[in-house]
Design goal:
Helix content is about 80%, strand content about 0%. The chain is mainly alpha-helical and about 190 residues long. This is YjgD.
Length: about 190
């Protein structure tokens, strides 16, 4: 009875080493089942020596039992909630996307990001930022109330309004600057 209890304690303390020993014994032709039942004459096997053999797995486990237990519990938790399946699917999608991206696509995305960065830098300039803010506020003001249709006579009357004059001045300056930045300007005077 004592040998059976010793064997169980050995298995509990060193399951990998015992499994390796049993596999080796089985490979050598030893009747493992008879050995475990105690009916074999060759029962003088030094299980202590077998458990002393060090393996990379047992070395990694030694001293890290608490961390491994916490890690396994965390893994079990994300498995129970289905998050593990979601993570696996996400990794498969990412792998497919990475496989589908070729050098041309990467360069194109890189160029687009660079251009967007340039636009953001330009928009961050103080004068441009203030002008864009004015335009956006004006668009917001116009969308609060429904503009009325205006004919030629209404347009001529509106030209006397100082706000319309100021707005037309901004619009003409914007059109002039746009023409200057677009490229060649042909003199049409």
């Amino acid at each position: 009875m004592q040998a059976g209890e010793d064997f169980e304690a050995l298995v509990e303390d060193n399951p990998e080493d015992v499994a390796a020993l049993l596999e080796r014994l089985d490979t050598e032709g030893t009747d493992v089942a008879a050995l475990l039942n105690g009916s074999s004459e060759e029962t003088n096997i030094d299980l202590g020596a077998a458990s002393e053999a060090s393996s990379p797995l047992s070395d990694a486990i030694d001293g890290n039992e608490a961390e491994l237990a916490e890690g396994l519990e965390s893994l079990a938790q994300i498995q129970r909630t289905g998050t593990l399946d979601d993570l696996l699917e996400l990794s498969q999608v990412a792998s497919l996307l990475m496989g589908a991206m070729d050098d041309e696509m990467v360069m194109s995305l890189s160029n687009l990001a660079s251009e967007l960065g340039g636009v953001a830098d330009t928009a961050a300039e103080e004068d441009i930022s203030r002008g864009l803010e004015d335009v956006l506020h004006s668009v917001g003001d116009v969308s609060e109330e429904e503009p009325e249709p205006v004919g030629a006579i209404g347009f001529a009357k509106a030209l006397r309004d100082p706000e319309v004059k100021a707005g037309l001045g901004v619009a003409l300056a914007l059109v002039k600057a746009l023409g200057r930045n677009v490229g060649t300007v042909e003199d049409t005077r």
